[in-house]
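We were asked to recover a plausible sequence for a given structure. The inputs and outputs are reproduced exactly as logged, with field labels preserved.

PROBLEM: sequence recovery
POSITIONS: 402
GIVEN STRUCTURE:
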């Protein structure tokens, strides 16, 4: 068995996602377990170089995790031919330019979502990646969540019969920051000019969840809102939170499936998890959170009685059976990293490429368009060879709106 080194440039690892999910839970965990096993039995050991504008912070993180290499010089890192993969989980606004630089330097690229702020930029980077023949990937972590993997298993097993509808509830209360509770998310998320907005953030996720689990998304109707326009940032300064902080979106999918997903940072949680999906089919229904999943088959479906004169006597929650944890579910970000590394090093199958990321940006952009124009919008097939001129116009409209 041989162990191969994989030189990996990591950008954005001082951020929430970059540090927690990608560095600590994925790359450090992979290094601790002795690398990633390839189909031929060899192993790949990632050798990261941490890159960030603040040399001190990046150096501290590197030392804390026993990582030998770090720098504040991205150009130099990209010039090193021994490092063949570039990863970005930095700010959304910088992503497209960073990916472009990395691809032009001949690197394979892997990144957080969204891959760009506009569809035209996203398709530009997809076209460049294809031209240069590099391998690419975008984080699609929700597909690796135990709850959604259980839903996928139920669907493959034929449990649902014909799927009729999907209801998603995502969100929790994000504190405004002005009355004794600091805000728990970075303030750029609530500023339009800094790449914020829940539609751009979450419709990227819902695109791959719906496409992969329930049917290709064919049309969208989306109502956004900026419920809380006054927030206090990390530096205790009050700011105008002008980005959308809630989205109420309905989707039509292949096969006549109707999906409705509410996404909100202005909602208090009285459900089993921070995101839940209810799937109703002719033969059975399921409700999944991040990890757990409950089912009700048609033969176990009780007959409720509508009687407003009496308090409810049925305990609806007790009428569902839990899908057992028959297999071990690891961190989803780490699982996806392992797949990507196998794809880069052994050509293993991989479907989460930049084109899949562009589809997410497309749905977000059409969500904004639907909101602005107060109507349903069809979702066309994407082709990275066609310049997305109309998409550019939509993006310009979105950014100038309100
Ligand atoms: N997959 C998911 O579930 C998920 C969840 C949250 C965020 N994200 C995505 O991850 C990305 C980061 O989000 P986050 O919540 O970690 O944000 P964050 O603000 O915590 O981190 C942003 C990172 O970018 C760096 N950065 C910002 N501006 C910079 C600049 N001008 N120059 C150099 N570096 C700069 C910061 O130093 C930091 O390392 C976003 O694109 C976001 O959409 C994905």
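RECOVERED SEQUENCE:
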């Amino acid at each position: 068995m041989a162990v191969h080194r994989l030189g990996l440039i990591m950008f954005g690892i001082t951020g929430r996602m970059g540090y927690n999910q990608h560095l600590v839970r994925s790359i450090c965990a992979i290094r601790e377990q002795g690398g990633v096993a390839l189909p031929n039995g060899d192993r790949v050991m990632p050798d990261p170089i941490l890159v960030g504008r603040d040399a001190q912070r990046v150096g501290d993180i590197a030392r804390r995790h026993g990582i030998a290499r770090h720098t504040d010089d991205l150009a130099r890192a990209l010039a090193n031919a021994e490092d063949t993969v570039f990863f970005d989980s930095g700010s959304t606004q910088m992503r497209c330019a960073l990916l472009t630089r990395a691809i032009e330097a001949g690197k394979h690229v892997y990144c957080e979502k969204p891959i760009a702020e506009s569809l035209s930029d996203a398709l530009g980077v997809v076209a460049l990646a294809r031209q240069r023949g590099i391998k690419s990937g975008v984080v699609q972590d929700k597909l690796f969540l135990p709850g959604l993997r259980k839903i996928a298993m139920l669907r493959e097993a034929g449990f649902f019969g014909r799927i009729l509808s999907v209801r998603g509830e995502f969100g929790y209360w994000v504190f405004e920051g002005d009355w004794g509770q600091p805000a728990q998310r970075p303030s750029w998320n609530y500023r339009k000019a800094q790449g914020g907005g829940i539609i751009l953030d979450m419709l990227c996720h819902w695109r791959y969840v719906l496409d992969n689990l329930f049917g290709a998304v064919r049309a969208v109707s989306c109502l956004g809102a900026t419920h809380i326009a006054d927030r206090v940032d990390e530096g205790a300064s009050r700011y105008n939170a002008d980005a959308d902080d809630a989205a109420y979106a309905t989707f039509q999918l292949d096969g006549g499936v109707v999906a409705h997903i509410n996404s909100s940072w202005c909602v208090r949680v009285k459900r089993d998890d921070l995101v839940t999906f209810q799937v109703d089919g002719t033969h059975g229904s399921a409700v999944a959170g991040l990890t757990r999943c409950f089912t009700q088959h048609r033969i176990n479906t009780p007959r409720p009685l509508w009687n407003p004169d009496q308090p409810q006597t049925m305990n609806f929650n007790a009428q569902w059976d839990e899908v057992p944890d028959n297999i071990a579910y690891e961190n989803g970000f780490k699982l996806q990293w392992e797949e990507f590394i196998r794809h880069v090093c052994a050509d293993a199958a991989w479907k989460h490429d930049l084109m899949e990321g562009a589809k997410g940006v497309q749905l977000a952009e059409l969500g904004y368009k639907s909101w602005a124009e107060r109507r349903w919008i069809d979702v066309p097939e994407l082709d990275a060879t066609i310049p997305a001129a109309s998409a550019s116009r939509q993006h310009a409209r979105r950014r100038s709106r309100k």
